[in-house]
Amino acid sequence: MTKHLTFIAALAFATAGIAFAAEAAAVKNIVIVHGALADGSGWRKATEILEKRGFNVTIVQEPLTSLDDDVAATKRVLDLQEGPTLLVGHSYGGMVITAAGNDPHVAGLVYVAAFQPDKGESLLSLTSSKPAGSMNIKETKDGKYLYLDPGAFAAAFAADLPKAETDFLARSQVFASKQAFSAKIGEPAWRTKPSWAIVATEDRSINPELEREMARRAGSAVTEIKGSHAVFASQAEKVADVIEQAAGKAGQRRG
Fold first, then answer.
1. Where is the AB hydrolase-1 domain (predicted)?
2. Phi, psi angle pair for 92, to nearest 5°
């Protein structure tokens, strides 16, 4: 009888330990890094979907003054998270999370129509390797910053969003420093962290084949979604699904 009770107690303790480990491993923090030529407000719909599913979502509003500045801004947000975090990057934001993702808070990386650079690569070197369809990037008069011609914004960035929305995005775009686009990456976080990638099949800002190639090289789990470069807004539900799945799998790896 005593042995039986001891066995039951040990089993109960072991079961509780397993449950605790699973709970401790869960990734509930999502930090999103927006791309250049836009800000984080376009992620509102996806954020609301994820929050309804129980996630704590924070969006980094990078200054876009340099890659180092944007990585530092991301790390400041990561420092505010309690527990493991899934780091999500769109477009140029992929450059940022590749560097910032080495932070110990980060459990995994999700690239959404984003650049996934290897060591020594820059955004400019990647885009020149496989040019996109219809970007019309211009310089500011001081020659220090870049912006997307508002007249070309809809076709290049967000062809599958309503016109009123793309017009607003074009007028509210955040100019990016040339330095940010030419900066080279150090050791990429995807070498040591699990990663996922969304390929936007109708992307005209980043060549979809380049997105596929970078994801293959990084060993990322790939999901293809029919959508423009602004797939995070036009297909928010599908993007949120990928992020949720990645958070679950990243948690399992840490458990």
1. 30-242
2. -60, -25
The one-letter code for the residue type at 203 is D
Cβ-proximal residues to 13 (8 Å cutoff; 6+ apart), any chain = none
Q: Which residue matches tokens 């996934």? A: 116
Pair 203, 229: CB distance under 8 Å: yes
| DSSP-assigned letters across all residues of 99-119 | HHTTSTTEEEEEEEEE--PPT
DSSP 160: T
| pLDDT tens for each residue of 23-48 | 446 799 999 999 999 999 999 999 99
State percent of the chain over pLDDT 70. Answer: 88
For residue 32, give both structure tokens.
């999103």
Alpha helices, DSSP H only, in 82-234? 93-100, 123-129, 150-157, 163-171, 178-182, 208-218, 231-234
